[in-house]
Design brief:
This protein is of the alpha/beta class. It folds into three domains: 2-147, TPP helical domain (Helix Hairpins), CATH 1.10.287; 170-500, Rossmann fold, CATH 3.40.50; 520-713, Rossmann fold, CATH 3.40.50. It contains 25 helices and 20 strands. The protein has an eight-stranded mixed sheet with strand order 3-11-12-8-7-4-6-5, sandwiched between helices. A four-stranded parallel sheet has the order 17-14-18-19. A two-stranded antiparallel sheet has the order 1-2. Strand 9 and strand 10 form a beta hairpin. Helix 7 runs antiparallel to helix 16, helix 7 crosses helix 17 (474-497) and helix 11 packs across helix 22 (643-655). The termini are far apart.
């Protein structure tokens, strides 16, 4: 308790200095302290100093109450009731009154510190109750480490005014129940009709479905026109059916193995790796486009792909407006804590070349990774602690409280649209079965799975709540279940009756309209890439003529003089100049060009100089963006990442095949760091998912050799 005594004893000097500042200028201290001192002055007649040897014990306890409020805001999440199947770990110091220098004898004492939480002067028991309800119920919040006080205040005002209690209408609650029922009954139906087949069920985490539905509805109200979603295999079939609106019949066809043509060169992939895209209609009548990216069993490999697709659509479809589209990443607890790609992607959040306006991260926290207990899977307190590296707020929500989850994800959507930051929601839940439906979890977690066996599913929990509130009655609920099961059975019967093949992943729509997967003849057929000499030289003159009103480094001026001679005199171009001319011709023809990688603006070997930094400032000059009537040339020095950046650029190219998208590896062997993207996407996506991609990979070792030894004559 020595540290606690130190904190309490140190407050007197702090409050004295704060009060002195308040006396000089009330606006110089925070609003809560203004109100606190106003109340204190009123009670004391403003005649005595705030802290002195004669300071009343009550005033020191006022400070203790303020400490308690800060304690709940900062550490209340450690004591929240967020775990549906396990007892929470114990943390010291706790939240007992004695921790803050208070006792039960103070419960009926009125403290001005209640002003800080919007209660005005209030009894300690009322302040305590308000803090318990806000920070220690089924929602745990981590946000006080955020360094922007405006964001912190936004959360405090939003949560404390409502005590973190959802307030849904009867109709909204029925909609939540309907989506939750779809999730639970769909999994149960698959389990009984396709015994022993792997489906990586969502059972235990079914609240994800009404949460996703809720964020789509909220997003539509806040101006979102499109969501790009990435997730691993657990729960994917449920998301495809009940969020993406892929027909149940189509999914049943996949269980029957009827969705791929045996004579096709397309080998296909397992049903829980497949992607899908669709338009859904929100409750307000607005259409929202949804894309679920296909991805392999490398659980988090899809993360940068989703971000790249989102950024590409922001650039080309939404004219730079990231409030129209949002990425959603659905993680597992073991993978979000263990996979380094998550950190790489987070570090892109605020970078000019990679920002997407904020990502909503949802974690299906089964509290186990395959067979590995969480205490063997991470060193951090929470699986989501990686989010704090970029100061993302984190919410921990009890997966049995579906209303709390819907409430939190709605707040997350608002926060994203206002502040354009990432936000994490950790859904504390469980996995009803083993890693897959054929696995026996009791081999390694016998105690946990004894609890899970006896635990009601989230629908049962919520249904009992609504029955008690009188929102629904038993007859209404039975009809809902009967009708839905009948629909599923009808779709199953139809799937069994038809010998069906479908291209369930239509590729040639939207930006890909009119294109096709490359054939052998395409590679063997020459393509006319000739550019008239006059046009090429015109581009060359434009990009080598530096403006006279800007001060460039002397060596840069000399370099561009030499490039000017190539254009005006010799017509012999080195590799770097040839590269820039190629970009220029594409830009003039209406094709955007994006190049990213480590140090690509100058080029690792000082060969490219596509972007020039002025000698006397940080201002940059990009010659290729001075061409008249051309598309934009975008070039970005990347973070020191290969895996994340190549995945991002793959996603970027996936969304716009008409742009030239290039990733440059700084050295040839650096390509190894991105090997998972190469194997799981670039080398295999056409045969697995019928997804082509125009991404160009450039290795600087080859570039250096050609720059030294190769010249080309026009």
């Amino acid at each position: 308790m020595d540290s606690l005594n130190y904190i309490n004893n140190g407050n007197a000097a702090f409050i004295d200095s704060l009060y002195s500042a308040y006396e000089q200028d009330p606006e110089s201290v925070e609003f809560g302290w203004q109100k606190f001192f106003e109340g204190f002055d009123f009670g004391r007649g403003a005649q005595a100093p705030v802290v002195s040897a004669e300071t009343p014990d009550h005033f020191l306890k006022e400070i203790n109450v303020l400490n308690m409020i800060g304690g709940y805001r900062g550490r209340g999440h450690l004591f929240a009731q967020t775990n549906p199947v396990r007892e929470r770990r114990k943390y010291f110091p706790g939240k007992e009154l004695e921790t803050f220098g208070l006792s039960n004898a103070d419960l009926d004492t009125v403290f001005n510190a209640g002003v800080e939480v919007g209660l005005g002067p209030a009894k300690l028991r009322d302040i305590l109750q308000m803090l318990e309800e806000t920070y220690c119920n089924t929602i745990g919040t981590e946000y006080h480490y955020i360094r922007n006080p405006i964001k912190v205040k936004w959360f405090q005002d939003r949560m404390e005014s409502q005590r973190n209690k959802p307030s849904f209408s009867a109709d909204e609650k029925k909609l939540i129940l309907s989506k939750l029922s779809q999730a639970v009954i769909f999994e149960n139906f698959l389990g009984t009709k396709f015994l022993g087949q792997k489906r990586f069920s969502l059972e235990g985490a079914e609240a994800l479905i009404p949460a996703l539905d809720s964020v789509i509805q909220k997003g539509a109200v806040l101006g979102i026109e499109e969501f790009v979603i990435g997730m691993a295999h657990r729960g994917r079939l449920n998301v495809l059916a009940n969020i993406m609106k892929k027909t149940y019949k189509e999914i049943f066809f996949e269980f029957e193995g009827k969705n791929y043509d045996e004579d096709s060169s397309i080998s296909g992939d397992v049903k829980y790796h497949l992607g899908f895209s669709t338009d859904v209609e929100a409750e307000n009548g607005k259409k929202v486009h949804l894309s679920l990216c296909p991805n392999p069993s490398h659980l988090e490999a899809v993360d940068p792909v989703v971000e790249g697709m989102t950024r590409s659509k922001i650039d080309f479809k939404y004219n730079g407006d990231h409030t129209k589209i949002a990425p959603i990443l659905i993680h597992g607890d073991a993978s979000v804590a263990g996979q380094g790609i998550v950190y790489e992607v987070l570090q892109m959040e605020k970078l000019d070349g990679y920002r997407t306006g904020g990502t909503i991260h949802l974690v299906i926290n089964n509290q186990i990774g395959f067979t590995t207990n969480f205490i063997d899977a991470r060193s951090s307190t929470y699986c989501t602690d990686v989010g704090k590296t970029v100061l993302s707020p984190v919410f921990h929500v009890n997966g049995d409280d579906v209303e709390a989850l819907a409430y939190v994800i709605n707040m997350a959507m608002e926060y994203r649209q206002i502040f354009h930051d990432d936000i994490f929601i950790d859904i504390l839940c469980y996995r009803r079965y083993g890693h897959n439906e054929a696995d026996e979890p009791k081999f390694t977690q016998p105690v946990l799975y004894k609890v899970i066996e006896e635990h009601p599913n989230p629908r049962e929990v919520y249904l009992n709540k609504l029955l008690a509130e009188g929102v629904v009655d038993n007859d209404e609920v039975k009809k809902m279940e009967k009708d839905f099961r009948a629909l599923l059975q009808e779709e199953l019967n139809e799937s069994k009756a038809e010998d069906h093949f479908t291209d369930s992943l239509p590729m040639f729509a939207g930006a890909w309209e009119g294109l096709h997967l490359a054939s052998e003849s395409d590679f063997n057929t020459p393509v006319n890439t000739v550019v008239p000499k006059k046009e090429l030289l015109s581009i060359g003159k434009k990009i080598t003529d530096l403006p006279k009103d800007k001060d460039f480094f002397k060596k840069i001026e000399k370099l561009f003089e030499e490039r000017g001679k190539m254009v005006n005199d010799t017509h012999v171009f080195d590799w770097a100049m040839g590269e820039l001319l190629a970009y220029g011709t594409l830009l003039k023809e209406g094709h955007p060009v994006r190049l990213s990688g480590e140090d690509v603006k100058r080029g690792t070997f000082s060969h490219r100089h596509a972007v020039l930094t002025l000698a006397d400032s940080e201002e940059e000059y990009t010659p290729l963006n001075t061409l008249d009537e051309s598309e934009k040339f975008s070039i970005y020095n990347s973070l020191l990442s290969e895996y994340g950046v190549l995945g991002f650029e793959y996603g970027y190219a996936l969304a716009n095949p008409n742009a030239l998208t290039i990733w440059e590896a700084q050295f040839g062997d650096f390509f190894n760091g991105a090997q998972i993207i190469v194997d799981q996407y670039i080398a295999s996506a056409e045969t697995k998912w019928q997804r082509g991609n125009g991404l160009v990979y450039c290795c600087l070792m080859a570039t250096r050799a050609r720059a030294q030894n190769t010249h080309q004559h026009v």
